Amino acid sequence: MLTLLTFGPSFEMPSHSPFCVKAMALLHLSGQDWQPKYLSDPRKMPLGRLPVLKTAEGRLIPDSAHIQAYLEAEGAAFDAGLSAQDKARSHALIRMVEGHLAAGMAHDRWLRDECWPEVREAFFNRVPRMMRGPVSGMIRRKVRAAMMINGIAQFSEEERLARLAQDLETISTTLGTGPFLFGERPTAADAAIAPVLDMIRTLPCDTGLRRLVRGSPALMGYIKRARAALYPM
Ligand SMILES: N[C@@H](CCC(=O)N[C@@H](CS)C(=O)NCC(=O)O)C(=O)O
């Protein structure tokens, strides 16, 4: 039995990390037997992050892309039937969403004062109440610094939203009439991308980014299909 070391559920999602939900979706699609093990502190993990897959032999595999490669080596064919051109588009889309759109979602979770109280309670609920304020405040300061370095927090609200809207339009255009990004059945791109859209949909406060996703019938329909196919809860 495989064990996925993952952050726990929050905001209608099976984990608060999009990379953990991606790994869950890949495991679900692979048909392998697996179970989640919830952690809140990844510092002792091989890369200091989650998700990490623990194999039946006890090997630890960090990073959702390495987990995907492991499952493929074990026989999963997430992108079966895709042309070389579609595989290239899939790769570029995943990089766009994991490198940019996910940062926009994380920006709204961590840096918006209207969202922060609910995010803090959801993400730090294992920290004793007395310590929750200082611990979460320290981590929030680190996240803010990282988002300035990344650049996502440097833009005005209008500029940031315009850039994120281009990502959403790219996803909608690729989706076309669907049902999934590359046709009739979900592929690795859906496993990586749908959780990020779903996390924008379930942001705990009203943001411009959330309004863009909720205001798109195409994206909302896609998220609903992807939830049912990839991480039924
Ligand atoms: N490239 C990694 C990214 C994983 C990642 O960044 N995980 C974040 C949560 S979304 C993490 O564990 N950060 C450390 C922390 O929260 O302490 C993957 O695809 O798995």
UniProtKB/TrEMBL annotation:
Residues 18-114 form the Thioredoxin-like fold domain. GO terms for molecular function: transferase activity. SUPFAM superfamilies: GST C-terminal domain-like, Thioredoxin-like. It comes from the Bacteria. The keyword NAD does not apply. Keywords: Transferase. This is Glutathione S-transferase family protein. It comes from Roseovarius faecimaris. The lineage of its organism: Bacteria, Pseudomonadati, Pseudomonadota, Alphaproteobacteria, Rhodobacterales.
